[in-house]
Amino acid sequence: MRRLWPSNTGALIDSTEVTMAEPDDRLRELLRAEPPPAVLGLPDAARAELAALVADARRRQAKTLEAAFAATLKHVPFPVRGIVKKVLVG
Questions:
Q1: Domain ranges within the chain, ordered by starting residue
Q2: What letter would DSSP give residue 75?
Q3: Model pTM?
Q4: What is the DSSP annotation of 21-54?
Q5: What is the pLDDT of residues 32-57, one digit of tens each?
Q6: In whole angstroms, what is the distance from residue 61 CA to residue 44 CA?
Q7: What sign does the dihedral 36-41-44-45 (CA atoms) show?
C-alpha cells in the first residue's frame, strides 16, 4: 500500500520508498531519543509512517501554539506588546 505524506519542505514523500535506516534516523531526530524497542520492531513502512505522523503532529502543534501566542498578545495593550513579547520569547 502506497501512502503519501508531506515532508518538511511541503513536498509529498512516498513512505514505501524509505530505506531501512531512514525511518529509524528520522524517528531518533523527531523524538530526540532512541525509539522504544517495540517501535523498532515495527516493519519499515510502519516506522516511516509513524515518523511522518509525528512530524505532522509537531508541525500542527507549532502552528497552534503560534496562533495561541498571537491571540494572547492581542489582549496586551499595544504600547507594551513589544516588551511583553520580549519577556515571553526572550
A1: 4-89
A2: T
A3: 0.65
A4: HHHHHHHHHHHTSPPPHHHHTS-HHHHHHHHHHH
A5: 999 999 999 999 999 999 999 999 99
A6: 26
A7: negative
